[in-house]
């Protein structure tokens, strides 16, 4: 194992940051949504922007499997199926689009969209508006943006969180539906990372084996924390963290 670790030539501080990133990945997949921006920034700091997506994708799939097993009984399939087709199209667009635009410019545009949507959601919350958006433009728009941002930056969580909050999903239904959605999408993305972007290699898989325990630990800790959070507090937490994440992207 020590020989395997030494071949990646990372400093102790880089290993610490990488393990913190995958711990937070497991933590987020347990239901503590909205911290995807932090995970992406930590992993990009160690491995670089595009390369880090290849390091993350197999670990995300493993974490998705844990989330699906734990929360599957709460999945709202009708809502998932409304979002999934547009999200698949978004991923395909992201595969093509990802090489032709500045990563910083793309993230700034995305941050503006997230902030605008969060402001609208906060306004709805303050008005105690209990209505649920039924317009297909809303679900398709959120699905498309989720797919594009998922492929380019692994940052789809903000848009799917906004969508599920708008659908007024309770905590466990929110987490269970998101778990299956991202498992399907991340498995769909994997071949593009292997054969098109070539960001998943034998070396990154070996690196995943070293980082994998951090994902498990993060998931187990997160599950215990989620149990303590009530539905209303969960909605406010997701809105707050999503807004802060968008600001981090915008200013980063």
Helix and strand arrangement:
Layout: H1 2-6, H2 12-29, H3 36-47, H4 49-71, H5 77-97, H6 103-126, H7 136-153, H8 157-166, H9 171-195, H10 202-228, H11 231-251
Helix pairs in contact: 2-3, 2-4, 2-10, 3-4, 4-9, 4-10, 5-7, 5-9, 6-8, 6-11, 7-8, 8-11
What can you see in these coordinates?
- It is a multi-pass membrane protein.
- This is Probable membrane transporter protein.
- It is found in: Cell membrane.
- InterPro entries: TM_pro_TauE-like, TSUP.
- Keywords: Cell membrane, Membrane, Transmembrane, Transmembrane helix, Transport.
- With 252 residues, the protein is mainly alpha-helical.
- It has one domain (2-251).
- 81% of the residues lie in helices and 0% in strands.
- The protein has helices at 2-6, 12-29, 36-47, 49-71, 77-97, 103-126, 136-153, 157-166, 171-195, 202-228, 231-251.
- Helix 5 (77-97) runs parallel beside helix 9 and helix 7 packs antiparallel against helix 8.
- It is globular, with a radius of gyration of 17 Å.
- It starts with a helix and ends with a helix.
């Amino acid at each position: 194992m020590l020989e395997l670790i030494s071949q990646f030539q990372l400093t102790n501080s880089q290993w610490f940051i990488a393990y913190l990133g995958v711990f937070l990945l497991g933590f987020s997949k347990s239901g503590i949504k909205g911290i995807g921006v932090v995970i992406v920034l930590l992993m990009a700091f160690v491995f670089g922007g595009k390369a880090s997506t290849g390091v993350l994708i197999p670990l995300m799939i493993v974490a998705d499997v844990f989330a699906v097993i734990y929360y599957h009984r709460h999945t709202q399939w009708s809502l998932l199926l409304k979002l999934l087709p547009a999200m698949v199209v978004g991923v395909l667009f992201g595969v093509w689009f990802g090489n032709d635009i500045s990563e910083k410019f793309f993230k700034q545009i995305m941050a503006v969209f997230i902030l605008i949507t969060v402001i609208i959601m906060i306004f709805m919350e303050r008005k105690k508006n209990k209505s649920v958006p039924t317009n297909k433009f809303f679900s398709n728009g959120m699905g498309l943006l989720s797919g594009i941002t998922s492929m380019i930056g692994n940052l789809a969580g903000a848009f799917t969180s906004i969508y599920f909050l708008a659908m007024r999903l309770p905590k466990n239904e929110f987490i269970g539906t998101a778990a299956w959605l991202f498992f399907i999408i991340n498995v769909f993305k994997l071949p593009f990372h292997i054969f098109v972007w070539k960001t998943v290699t034998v070396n990154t898989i070996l690196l995943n084996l070293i980082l994998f325990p951090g994902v498990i630990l993060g998931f187990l800790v997160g599950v215990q924390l989620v149990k303590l959070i009530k539905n209303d507090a969960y909605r406010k937490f997701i809105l707050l963290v999503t807004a802060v994440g968008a600001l981090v992207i915008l200013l980063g």
